[in-house]
Please model this.
Amino acid sequence: MTRLINTQPDETNNLTDEIVRTSVRRFKDDELQDYEDFVAREYPLTIILNDQELVTLLCTPSKLKQLAVGFLYSEGLLQSGDEIRNLTVDEPRGIARVSTDTGQVDSETMHKRFITSGCGRGASFYNATDITGEKVTSDLRVKTGDILSLVRDFQHHSEIYRATGGVHSAALCDNENILLFTEDIGRHNALDKIFGECMLDDISVDDKIIVSSGRISSEMLLKVARRKVPVIVSKSAPTDLGIKLANDLGITLIGYVRGKRMNVYTENWRVV
Amino acid sequence: MTRLINTQPDETNNLTDEIVRTSVRRFKDDELQDYEDFVAREYPLTIILNDQELVTLLCTPSKLKQLAVGFLYSEGLLQSGDEIRNLTVDEPRGIARVSTDTGQVDSETMHKRFITSGCGRGASFYNATDITGEKVTSDLRVKTGDILSLVRDFQHHSEIYRATGGVHSAALCDNENILLFTEDIGRHNALDKIFGECMLDDISVDDKIIVSSGRISSEMLLKVARRKVPVIVSKSAPTDLGIKLANDLGITLIGYVRGKRMNVYTENWRVV
Model:
């Protein structure tokens, strides 16, 4: 048996490459061929908050500081970028260290976990059923033509990543343009990277649109709701709980955006 | 604003329906239409092991006992079906109670979490980098034609679910037939349901093939490795860490099975 794979870091594969070379035996039309292919890298990033090891995320190795900050925010462990005293990422060892003014997380919080279904990281410290968030009241309006056009641009941005292994993407947009774009093997990570970047660079999100490549489940909705984003758009379907939360929290949820069609599940007054 | 959605349980939607009715406003070719559509249900299932609340999974409400057992096994909290003294599921409240001979989980185990990227649940108590599992040594051989045929059948089984919202599927197969088939909004849950069912019904898996609809990341590989399954097949791509683990653990990893082609990433001697 030949040892086929070479996915360890070496001269041809950098540790933080997002895609890596691998050998593969392909069967096609009854023929056999050995060749080199590319697959998405899965990189473990351990987040240490105030000297306490919190979690290890499996992610695409890009925008790691943004991911760490966005994750902490999504989990309710960070309220604003101003709380961060220090933020370093040790890429070779896969460690993000964050120091804040808020001190350690109590073990009760650590214990109360909410492991989700999502095509994305999944675990969360909050409980979806405990949510008592304020409604999003933004009077933003979006045109159907603009949404279709944003999703077309978004698909175009994602092309290279989809080609190499179907990773997920997320984008922050205004009515006409993609402002930030991220990709990750997990759809939750991609969204956390967007929000982390916005926190670090002081970019407002409560007047913007989020586009995601993945299914809109409850946890995706909760992340968006925490940041008061009024509109979330996906080419995929939502779940019933995603729709229920969008409705309760006043968020316009648009799914199945494909070609010239889209479904608006909630708060359709924002779509003109 | 009309309240569009009706995703709460009522006469038309049963609590454990896998898909539920929802109202939606559709824009299509510049026309607007209000109609009823179906979306996947996202159901929270809290697992209580020996009176200790362990985790809440977001899942598709089917095979809940199997999911609870499979999850506990995957997390290393259960070694065999014989350890189970009692197993009940309270469907309306979304609670699975499992009593075993093994007692409570220590808080250190609870704390050491490994939140994954996966299109699936994601969190896990083990650390992928700590794995020192034995190699899978099964001398099972599979024919390329059989794999292509199994994946065709698998796709056919999945059709109804994909149509209503893109949920994931997993199957246990022998060389020619699908023996068990499950679906879930999370690809990890779908696999846990398969393994839970095998544990409860005493079905061997170490001479079988697993087919999954989702990307093969490290955590999927670890679940399969724990059960000593020699072959895992997906129409999607693997990640580099998935390939590395398959190689280290002696598992044949086949991806991108589409039409008449497939990629064999590791242990290709099993494919004849």
